[in-house]
Amino acid sequence: MNTKKSQGGKSRCPICQLGIFTELGRPIEDALQNLDAESLNFMAGSTVYETASAATAIYVLMHGYVKLAKTTLIGKSQIIRIVRVGEIFGFDGLVAEYYNHSAAAVGEIDVCRIPVAGLQDLGEHKAEVERLIMVRCIKELQHADERLLELGAKRSPERLASFLVDWCNATSANGWVPLVLSRSEIAQFLGLTIETVSRLFASWKRDGILREQKQSIRVMDWQRLKLLAQSN
User: Fold this and answer.
1) Angle at which helices 183-190 and 194-206 cross, to 10°
2) Distance CA 76, CA 69 (A)
3) How far apart are the C-alpha atoms of 199 and 217, rounded to whole Å?
4) CB count, 10 Å around CB of 52?
5) For the chain, what is the radius of gyration of the CA atoms?
6) What is the strand order of the sheet 210-213 is part of?
7) SS3 label, residue 62
8) Counting Cβ atoms within 10 Å, is residue 213 exposed (0-12), middle (13-18) or buried (19+)?
């Protein structure tokens, strides 16, 4: 596994302090403290898990971004989701034996790895913890459904504008926002060509809608960008 520790390796993850679990109350927080969760660090480009590998753990992203991808029958990789801080990924282990996609670090990342088998040790609290995790998973599936609708119903400029509105709103509505995906990855994620994505970026920068510097983006005209996202 391509990991490293801050000063060298993995360490115990204070899972009860993760934002997604703080609403569960003190008794369940105490039970979570006994869960054998690990804090792991992955370098940029490292693989967290591969497609068809044993789904023995779920993950919570604590720092950075993770790219989830599936490979088609002809060997083409397709990005299906970009995971952000605080989100859960790898939850296949709750319902299946193997992961049906791969996960890779986009830049350096920190994750909390929660063994699926360890959930059995939660005893009477297991169902409540799993319920909370599944609620988060359902929200992610709903978001994926919305993206599929956009891919089918929107034209190229609307797809890219919608992506940028969502990306920048979720990260920071003001100032510079890290744009961790390359033009090629954005094109792949949105079902566009890299030429189309590059052309639209160039046009919107000329029009004063966006600015870019050192893998960061800043929206200069939110009203125009939102209008582009909704123009159909």
Assistant:
1) 110
2) 10
3) 16
4) 13
5) 19
6) 177-178, 216-219, 210-213
7) strand
8) exposed
Give the tens place of pLDDT for each residue, 92-124.
887 889 999 999 999 899 998 988 887 776 656
Q: At 226, phi and psi to the nearest 5?
A: -65, -35
For the whole model, what pTM was predicted? 0.79
| Cβ atoms 116, 55 nearer than 8 A | yes
Number of H helices, E strands in the chain: 6, 10
Tokens matching residue 188: 């792949």
Of 110, 2, 96, 97, the residue nearest 66 (C-alpha)? 110
- For tokens 């993850």, name the residue: 13
Q: How far apart are CA 132 and CA 109, in angstroms?
A: 24
Instruction: Give yes or no for a contact between 169 and 158, defined as CB atoms under 8 angstroms apart.
Output: no
Question: CA–CA distance from 202 to each of 90, 109, 119, 183, 211 (Å)?
Answer: 36, 30, 49, 11, 10
pLDDT (tens digit per residue) in 122-155: 656 667 777 777 777 787 777 777 767 766 778 9
Judged by phi (left if over 0) then psi (alpha if -120 to 50, else beta), residue 7 lies in: left
Residues in Cβ contact with 11 at an 8 Å cutoff, skipping those fewer than 6 apart: 5, 38, 39
According to DSSP, the residues that pair with 4 across neighbouring strands are: 41
Which residues have a Cβ under 8 Å from the Cβ of 91 and sit 6 or more positions away?
58, 133, 134, 137
